[in-house]
Automatic annotation (TrEMBL):
This is Diheme cytochrome c. It holds the Pfam family DHC. Keywords: Signal. It comes from Hydrogenophaga taeniospiralis CCUG 15921. SUPFAM superfamilies: Multiheme cytochromes.
Length: 171
């Protein structure tokens, strides 16, 4: 009997550990979860950076996915099954940590308080460089953006950045 009770306790502890790890990962924010649906890579990341779901709260993802016909000025409509699959995944992995608990204006990651704080030293002219185009083009500077890696140690200067801006970047 003790063996069964011990085994049951170990299985329960392991299950709780996986649930806690999963929740902590969702709150990790910027990293992509391991279970990225193929449709996310094919449909979303084909047009822009495949943002980690933890960068926005669940309500933002729900609004974004329910308005794909007017997705920031573009018709990004998908079939209902794909919308449901991606919405479920995005909401399940959405940010819940205090830094993303509140939806940013227009549900834009680049308008969130944490994004603006992390990029407050970037001159507006950098966002307009031909190699960058906008703050939403994370891969212009973050070499691991396609994998959800935004570590400051892996930054590159965007093409066309002048010497003065390079010096300011390094300060």
């Amino acid at each position: 009997m003790n063996t069964h009770r011990t085994l049951r306790s170990l299985l329960l502890a392991a299950s709780l550990g996986l649930v806690a790890l999963s929740a902590a990962h969702a709150d990790g924010g910027r990293r992509l979860p391991r279970n990225v649906p193929q449709a996310y890579t094919q449909e979303c990341a084909a047009c822009h950076t495949g943002y980690a779901p933890g960068m926005l709260p669940a309500r933002s993802w729900q609004r974004i996915m329910s308005g794909l016909d007017r997705h920031y000025g573009t018709d990004a409509s998908l079939d209902a099954a794909t919308v449901q699959q991606l919405t479920t995944w995005l909401v399940a992995n959405a940010g819940t940590y205090k830094r993303v608990a509140e939806a940013p204006p227009e549900d834009r990651i680049t308008r969130s308080a944490w994004f603006e704080r992390k990029h407050d030293d970037i001159a507006p002219s950098v966002w307009r460089l031909a190699s960058v185009k906008s703050a939403a083009n994370c891969a212009a500077c973050h070499t691991g953006a396609d994998k959800g890696d935004y570590d400051d140690d892996n930054l590159q200067f965007p093409a066309g950045l002048d010497a003065r801006s390079r010096r300011a970047w390094n300060d």
